[in-house]
Amino acid sequence: MDTGRVDINQVLMQMRTIKSQMQQARPAETHVDRQGVNQINSQMPMPGQSTGSVEQSEPPSFGEMFKSAVDTVNDNQKAASGLSQRFELGDPQVDLPEVMIALQKSSVSFQAMTQVRNKMVEAYKEIMNMAL
Asked: For 21-67, what is each residue's pLDDT tens digit?
């Protein structure tokens, strides 16, 4: 038997184990997500609220925020590609579920970015068609 190949039964067992762990951890995960959202919300100033610092910096421009989002999507895709390549080359520190999750994250982030781009193009077209 070729020892370089992955045993399908072992992969299926890993996937079932991960699924059962996710199902058991789902309520705790929701609690953590809410805490994270509350923490982020508490750090963001409300409109008209002072940030508490003496110097107020300008909020980032839309272009900067969009570039940051594109860079994040690019980083996700590079990381997923790197993990996939390491798995294909037989790196024992990379397992299939980790690769699949990274690939799905990169796919979802790319799809979200594409939808935002489509909405921006649609909004631009609407603005250009407005009567002055």
From this structure: 766 765 544 444 455 445 544 544 444 445 444 456 788 887 888 88
Tell me the CB-side half-sphere exposure of residue 130, using CA atoms within 13 A: 7
Residue 49: HSE in the Cβ half-sphere, 13 Å Cα cutoff = 7
pLDDT of residue 32: 42
Cβ neighbour number for residue 86 with a 10 Å cutoff: 15
Q: Residue 106 in contact with residue 80, Cβ under 8 Å?
A: yes
- What Cα–Cα distance (Å) separates residue 111 from each residue in 5, 12, 20, 85, 115? 32, 28, 28, 22, 6
Question: Which residue's structure tokens are 């993990």?
Answer: 83
Q: Which residues contact 79 (CB under 8 A, 6 or more apart)?
A: 102, 106
46 sits in the region (left: phi over 0; alpha: psi -120 to 50; else beta) called beta
Measured distance CA(119)–CA(124) in Å, rounded: 9
Which segments of 1-132 does DSSP mark as H helices, in order? 8-43, 62-88, 96-129
pTM check: above 0.70: no
